[in-house]
Automatic annotation (TrEMBL):
Protein name per UniProt: Glucose-6-phosphate 1-dehydrogenase
PANTHER family membership: GLUCOSE-6-PHOSPHATE 1-DEHYDROGENASE (PTHR23429:SF0), GLUCOSE-6-PHOSPHATE 1-DEHYDROGENASE G6PD (PTHR23429)
Binding-site residues, substrate: H198, K202, E236, D255, K358
Residue stretches making up the Glucose-6-phosphate dehydrogenase C-terminal domain: 209-503
Organism lineage: Bacteria, Bacillati, Actinomycetota, Actinomycetes, Micromonosporales
Glucose-6-phosphate dehydrogenase NAD-binding domain span: 23-207
GO cellular component: cytosol
Organism: Longispora fulva
Gene3D superfamilies (alphabetical): Dihydrodipicolinate Reductase, domain 2 (3.30.360.10), NAD(P)-binding Rossmann-like Domain (3.40.50.720)
Catalyses which reaction(s): D-glucose 6-phosphate + NADP(+) = 6-phospho-D-glucono-1,5-lactone + NADPH + H(+)
Name of the gene encoding the protein in the UniProt record: zwf
């Protein structure tokens, strides 16, 4: 399996997929317009798509290819990361096709299968196709069954590879995730199933492994002897937008804690893999996910909140109950903070504090490793007071980079101490631009590289962490916080009880 990190020779070579088709279900939706179509354009712009590459959009519209081309052009112009180039677009536009229909429409799926077959002849695609399920999660089973019924999922029938990309959330608890895993592995072969967690496609997230395992500096102190605690924050300033239908049935824990935040935790806490082979990395992540335990006293260690009206960045912001299509009595959380423990020798006794929220003061995702204070400090008590914990902060977004915080002498005649920060910023250190997460992940799907995709066991291990939390919260009301605040007071108290506080992210 191709892996750019495994062989330095590989890394320098552009990875170009074999001729293939990308079929996007739900192509008119938010994700497709903002991320997937722009990702395809960016790949084309960077010369990373094979000759004869085709995008087939499927949605319930009475549309021809021209209407779809128009939607695709607008999405690429609005959301692509690379500059607009007419020549790139005119190459791509000849290879954009549309099939209209609903997911329960057999005729439409038969037509889709025929279209794929025809493309083999017209575009020289040897039966290779990836099916991207950018659709509401309840529709996953129906579309999978249609792919099975029509034979589109079958490698042998098509004579090329057939892959499926399943968006998150993968199930809404352990039981439903298992059922979906069974179904998807039944329709496709396990090897051809790509479960998306787009955080793994972010450059800074991939850098966690480089930081930890390409250096000798950090690993010796990366354990309970030196680390006091780890804080993982994913804060968003936005609300739920027009996604109430999905969000109100999910909430913050199912939406992002189960996937993005636990994956960040796994990469931060895992042991060194024996190689950068995708299986080896996933084995190590899985060991961590399975070693996670929840504190017994969930009342004090699992806090959820819901925003009420407030101000974000100087703008008045509605409360969750005022958002479009949210029921007035909704008790869905838009904020969650939990303490997790990891039962292994490296991390015993080190709390991992995870928090996420919508309508927080600003958008920031970071992993902060907070080190224990030195066992002895030969300075005046007043000076020592000025020092916090040493911190290593991996800034996932925005302002991607790393920050190391440590104590230093203030210039002058006295031994006065103060915390200072050493900053590394991607934008300053590298001239290369990072691909957007979905660009990287779509390319990996077309190449067949599964390194950045969680497997069934990881998904299930993550639900084993979330299910007891959901059970504990069921029937309770979330705490409230004002839009523009860093979550409810109870989340601050959770840390304050042990003399800690949330880092000002
Ligand atoms: N949007 C985001 O930021 C993120 C989304 N995701 C996941 O991606 C997936 C898609 O999300 P998103 O794009 O936001 O969802 P949207 O609701 O915006 O889009 C859903 C798409 O599915 C189509 N669709 C729905 N029902 C049917 C049906 N019965 N037959 C045919 N087409 C149908 C819709 O078509 P129509 O226009 O006709 O309704 C639309 O194209 C979800 O699994 C979501 O959880 C994951 C991370 C982030
Ligand atoms: O998966 C999701 O992620 C987005 C945030 O993604 P980011 O890359 O902008 O950090 C979040 O808004 C959404 O609720 C969730 O489904």
């Amino acid at each position: 399996m191709t892996n750019p990190l495994r062989d330095p020779q590989d890394r320098r070579l552009p990875r170009i997929p074999e001729p293939c088709a990308l079929v996007i279900f739900g192509v008119t939706g938010d994700l497709s317009r903002k991320k997937l179509i722009p990702a395809v354009y960016d790949l084309a712009n960077r010369g990373l798509l094979p000759p004869g590459f085709v995008v087939l959009g499927f949605a319930r519209r009475d549309w021809g290819d021209g209407d779809f081309e128009e939607l695709a052009r607008k999405s690429a112009q609005q959301h692509a990361r690379t500059p607009w180039r007419d020549e790139v677009w005119s190459r791509l536009v000849g290879n954009i096709k549309f099939v209209g229909g609903s997911f329960d429409d057999d005729v439409a799926f038969d037509h889709l299968a025929e279209t794929l077959d025809e493309l083999r002849a017209t575009h020289g695609i040897p039966g290779n196709a990836a099916f991207y399920l950018s659709i509401p999660p309840p529709a996953f089973p129906m579309v999978l069954k249609q792919l099975e019924r029509t034979g589109m999922a079958n490698n042998n029938v098509s004579g090329g590879w057939r892959r499926v990309v399943v968006e998150k959330p993968f199930g809404n608890d352990l039981e439903s995730a298992k059922a979906l895993n069974d179904l998807v592995d039944d329709v496709f072969t396990g090897h051809d199933v790509f479960r998306i967690d787009h955080y793994l496609g972010k450059e800074t997230v991939q850098n966690i492994l480089a930081l930890r395992f390409a250096n000798s500096l950090f690993e010796p102190v990366w354990n309970s002897h030196y680390v006091d605690s780890v804080q993982i924050t994913m804060a968003e300033d936005v609300g739920i937008g027009s996604r109430a239908g999905f969000y109100d049935t999910a909430g913050a824990a199912r939406d992002v804690l189960q996937n993005h935040l636990l994956q960040l935790l796994a990469l931060t806490a895992m042991e060194e893999p024996t190689s950068f082979d995708s299986e080896e990395i996933r084995t190590e992540k899985l060991k961590v996910l399975r070693a996670i335990t929840l504190p017994e006293d969930l009342e004090s260690h699992a806090i959820r909140g819901q925003y009420v009206q407030g101000w974000v960045a100087g703008q008045r912001a509605d409360g969750y109950h005022q958002e479009e299509n949210v029921p007035q009595d909704s008790t869905t959380e838009t904020y969650a903070a939990v303490q997790l423990n990891i039962k292994n020798r490296r991390w015993a006794g080190v709390p991992f504090h995870l928090r996420t929220g919508k309508r927080m003061p600003r958008r920031v995702t970071e992993i902060a490793v907070l080190f224990k204070k030195a066992p002895h400090l030969p300075f005046d008590a007043a000076d020592v007071e000025m020092l916090g914990n040493n911190q290593l902060v991996i800034r996932v977004q925005p302002d991607e980079g790393l920050m190391l915080k440590f104590g230093s002498k203030v210039p002058g005649t006295a031994m006065e101490l103060r915390d200072i920060a050493m900053d590394f910023q991607y934008g300053e250190a590298f001239t290369e631009s990072s691909p957007e997460a979905y660009e990287r992940l779509v390319l990996d799907v077309l190449i067949g590289d599964k390194t950045l995709f969680p497997d069934a066991a990881e998904v299930e291990a993550s639900w084993r962490v979330i299910d007891p939390l959901e059970e504990f919260w069921a029937g309770t009301k979330p705490h409230t916080y004002r839009a523009g605040e860093w979550g409810p007071r109870a989340a601050d108290e959770m840390l304050a009880r042990t003399g800690r506080q949330w880092r000002r992210a």
